Each structure stands twice: as C-alpha cells, then as structure tokens.
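Reopening: Nicotinate-nucleotide adenylyltransferase still failing for me.
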Amino acid sequence: MHYSSASTTTLPTLDTHKKALDVNLDSRRYGTFAEIGAGQEVVRWFFRVGGGAGTIAKSMSAYDMKVSDAIYGRAARYVCRERLHAMLDYEHELNLERLRDVRGDTTAFFAFADTVSARNYHGTNACHGWMGIKFQAHPRDADSEIIIHVRMLDDEAALQQEALGIVGVNLVHGAFNLHHEPEKLVDSLLDGLSTSRIEIDMIEFSGIAFRHVDNRLMSLKLVELGLTGAAMFAANGEVLQPSEFFYRKPILVERGSFRPVCNVNLDMLRCAHEQFSQLPNVKDKQVVQVMELTMNNLKSAGEIDLRDFLARADVMATCGMPVLISDYFQYFRLGAYLSRYTKESIAITMGAGSLMDLFDEQYYTDLPGGILESFGRLFKNDLKIYCYPLLDSESGELITCENLNIKPELQKLYGYLKDRGGITGLDNYDPDCLKIFSRDVLQRIKHGDCSWEQMVPSCVAEVIKGKNYFDFQPA
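Support: Ran it again with your exact input. Result attached.
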C-alpha cells in the first residue's frame, strides 16, 4: 500500500473566518468551549463571525487553580494530557446530561478544551499546550475524540494567542467535516499558519468515528507534512508526547532501518546501555531507550510504503521498543531535538560504518562552518556516541573505533572527540551478532531461506511469519 498526496483530491483552503462561520451555520453542532491559559482565543472566533448562539452552549475559562480543581478534580500539573481529558470528559458529559433529552435527536454535541502555557511576562516558560475535541459525529452517535499537543513558536504572547485560536478553529472544523478523512484533517490543522509559528508534535484519534485509524500512521503523517520534526509512539501503539516521555530522563537512541529488527540491533542497544548506565551522571537513573526511523530512510525508495512502515513498527513493538520518527537526517539535529526535552545525558549508539559516514564532509556543505560546526552542535551538551564494531565480510577484519578509516585531515579531530569521551567503542558485544546484517536477513526472507529466523529475535520471526511481512511467503 502506497500513499501519494497527488492521488487525493485537493480542496480549496478555507480561511479561519469561513471555517468558524461554517460551524456556526451547521444546526447539528452544539457544545461547550473550555479554555485555560492564553485567553479564550478559540471560542472568540465563533463569537466574532456571527451565529454563535446556534453553536455555543457555554464558554468558560477556569484560570484560578482552586476553581479549576473544584470543577475538574485536582491535578499535579495544569498543562498536561490528563487535565485535558478531565476537561473534555466533564464538559461533554454535562452537555449530554442537560441537553440530550431535549434536543438529542437532532443535535450532535461536542466539547472543545485547551490548557495552554503561553509566553509569560518574563519570557521564561516553555510555550506549549494541549487541545482537543470530544464530539458526536452524528446525533445519538457514540463519542469520538481528537487530541493534539502544540508548541507555540512566536516570540510575542499576542501572536501565540492568535495562532492558538486559528489551530483551534481548524481542529473544530476538521472534526466535524473531515472526520471520515483523517489524513486531510491532519493536513488542515495549520491552514492559515506556518510551521514557523506552530508545531504539532502529537495527535491521537479515538472513538467510533476513528475506529479504523492507526495512530502510528497519523504520527508519521505529522512528520511527513512538516507539522513537526519528530513524532513518537509506544510499543503498544499509544501516541507519546516527547516532552512528557523524555522529561528528566537520560536517553539512549539507536537509528536504523529495522527491516527487520535483528539480533545485532538489540545487542547494539544492550552493549551501549551497559556502558551508558554506568556513567556517574547516569547511574541509578531510568534510561529511556528508543529506536529511531528517519524520513530519509523511509523515503529511500521514493514514496513511503505504508505497509513497509507498519511492518517495521510492528517488529520494533514486539521487542518492546518505543519508536521515534524523525526528519533529522543529520545527527546534530537529532541531538538538539533530544536536548530540548531533557537536561540529562544523551547517547546515540551506531555501527562503525555509520560512524565513518558521520565524518563524511559531503553531509555538511549546507553549514557555514562545515563539519566543525556540525560536531560543535552535536557534542555541545556532552552527548555520547557508542560505536559497535563492524565485521568486514570480505577481509574478515574487525573495524572498531580504534582502527576506523578516517581521512588524514580529520584524524586529529576524531582523536580529540575520542579522547574527551565523546566517542566510545563497545567491546562487550556478542561475537555471534557480528555476521548479521539486516539487508542480508531481508534477502533471505524474500528468497525463502529459513536461516533468517536464527538471526532475529523469536518474537520478531513470529510477527513476520504471522503477517507475511517483508515479502515472506509461507512454505
């Protein structure tokens, strides 16, 4: 199965005013707007365009923490997913309780909510927020829900508030008019905005209208469309929000194609974790381990093959690994992204071949400072690289970070990074894993050579055979 944006019908983009008015003129829609932080920026649009009395049952904003707790229950944090869910559940249920018997046959009820931390007076806070809508797609229908997490990138509070209002209108309009086409709904969220103003790094669909939606594909869509540089989901498919998942934790990342996950991939993580977790500033802390797929890798054959993507996601999931999809082909961009969410140590594990590519200057021609600027950014926050050895299949030589073939003019730079602990070799590897290469495993699967089953974890083999992934053909 392939996705191609060219294969879908392109609809004219509606401006925010038209979207809000469309909702107001739809006599089936009726509900509540509850907003905490940054003013009532979303509901303001529906009041301003006219006809709001036909749409808005109630608009409220419980700014005081004690007042908010009295309505929605106590919360450890006020700008978080749990608080958003509490707001949506409470307000939607209240509408049904009060209005269902009176107008339930002709009205599809909804509750919109957001809880936001916009730029404070001193400009010292993280500007982000949670936003969602719980709604009936049709009168008397079971509930459906969409929640998103946004990062507000404008420098001024007033601009952040304006952007928030536009995203909110897009979400409400999309829920009512595009719930049957979730990809188009995602695409519409930044209508009237740009990614320089708003980043949407998490989206989750649930409920009856979205019973066939795979949220992993929607996470992929966010990155593919450029709404965010990276998105995450857990092994069970649950969408993760990076700032919550990485919060105050050391991070260990392995980048790969994972077509499929092989024994060597898990050994690489194990070896790196053993060394990383013994560092003085990491010891006794919970290290988060993540497998990362880049858009560059997913698009290596042209368009993204969705079945291939889901195959990779499933084999990573069966290994219990959370998945990070990123558009950060250059490692220093990945490092900067991760350091945004944690002050703890960050490590990347890679094979010796990938480490050699890291010192290839062709990848840094777009930087004014070239490879020096790249490494300055990459190692700025004391990031660690753990190098897993590579067994040369032709010569039989074991390539490690000690005998890596680096260009003469870069050897002193390489030596400096190694001497200061930025690059560390892994010597605690399993020798049986050195002869395993994912591209070789993939070819064996396609050609019906059952020896591949010994090269991957047993749980991975079962998933591949059970779902006929990677062109596996049962005997």
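Residues 14-213 form a domain with the Maf protein fold (CATH 3.90.950.20). If you still see a failure, please send the error message rather than a screenshot.
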